[in-house]
Amino acid sequence: MSDESTDANARHAAKMKKIKAARDRMMEGKTEEKGLIMVHTGPGKGKSSSGFGMILRCIAHGMPCAVVQFIKGTWVTGEAEILRNRFAEECRFFISGEGFTWEVQDRERDIAAAQNGWKIAREQILDPEVQFVLLDEINIALRYDYLDIDEVVDFLLHEKPRMTHVCLTGRNAKPELIEAADLVTEMSLVKHPFRDGVKAQKGVEF
Amino acid sequence: MSDESTDANARHAAKMKKIKAARDRMMEGKTEEKGLIMVHTGPGKGKSSSGFGMILRCIAHGMPCAVVQFIKGTWVTGEAEILRNRFAEECRFFISGEGFTWEVQDRERDIAAAQNGWKIAREQILDPEVQFVLLDEINIALRYDYLDIDEVVDFLLHEKPRMTHVCLTGRNAKPELIEAADLVTEMSLVKHPFRDGVKAQKGVEF
């Protein structure tokens, strides 16, 4: 192993240790209930859907909640529609900027959109009214370094109000986020109909 | 390997081959859209939540849907409450029998409840009005053989209307069901706060 990669590994280990220590301090003296940092990741389905399932539970329990969508799909998603039309009072709904285009030439615009989404996310998390915040597909923005992972993790560990739940979704969650989280679920794909040429369908995919 | 286990393996392989053949026939001449058999399994979170997330999408799209819950929790779940109070017209909601008690002495009652749930499930799936049916925690009833797996798989492959979607949730999905399904997602637990003594919380767990 080169000195450079040994250094990188050592830095990584030190960083992880620091995150773990911060997390351990946070967990010390915990009472029975606390706001959770939750991550839904992996290549399988259900990462966003289960986040929206939890939003539905919050609405049922009268817990004010908020959603920030970091990826604006090309279709109008069912979740967005129903939250805006039927639950506007119970759940605040935001789509960050203009969304990603996945095209390199718009990288600057994508970064600005992600940063704007994170600004909204911070405001919602800090708002004492809001008890649950879903940051849908934020992992994509983190993966491409449109957002700074250290800043996000630091905010979640040190500035998030103690009782507020935050759920972060999207594949390829960064190890720093997994280390900081209380609950991490990995969704794996065992079988998928797209392989057989079946297209995305209403109700199931969007 | 004993003759007995060789026989068992051969029977299993033959059964799987038969299920696969039936599935392949079903897939032949498929058009672009078809009703899917979906399975959410594994020890992680999000199996039921993402099923309810899809229900929310169906409601948004005006697709009539139905939920049959095979396990009645000891708490009133948020999903049940909101579906019954706010979406009674869009989504039919059933809890099978009196639910499971997980106590051996009530096995007969549990079997009756599961069978009753399956009767309702069949009716909802066959109802041409209904486009999406969520069979929540049916895998538990299948695992304990409260329902016959061959009967369930046979019904899904041969009697389910072509365009109807069915989503079956619960850990330990039987291999026969996975073989028959179009889309299978496994939820794995990477990290869970219960390990640290944090209790189940409103909005997150129920």
Structure description:
The structure is a homodimer of 206-residue chains. The first copy, chain A, contains seven helices and six strands. The first copy, chain A, is of the alpha/beta class and 206 residues long. Chain A has a single domain, classed as P-loop containing nucleotide triphosphate hydrolases (Rossmann fold, 3-Layer(aba) Sandwich), CATH 3.40.50. The first copy, chain A, has a six-stranded parallel β-sheet, with helices on both faces. The longest helix of chain A has 25 residues. Chains A and B meet through strand 1, helix 2, helix 3 and strand 6 of A and strand 1, helix 2, helix 3 and strand 6 of B. Chains A, B: Pathway: Cofactor biosynthesis; adenosylcobalamin biosynthesis; adenosylcobalamin from cob(II)yrinate a,c-diamide: step 2/7. Chains A, B: It is an enzyme of class 2 (transferase). Chains A, B: This is Corrinoid adenosyltransferase. Chains A, B: Keywords: ATP-binding, Cobalamin biosynthesis, Cytoplasm, Nucleotide-binding, Porphyrin biosynthesis, Transferase.
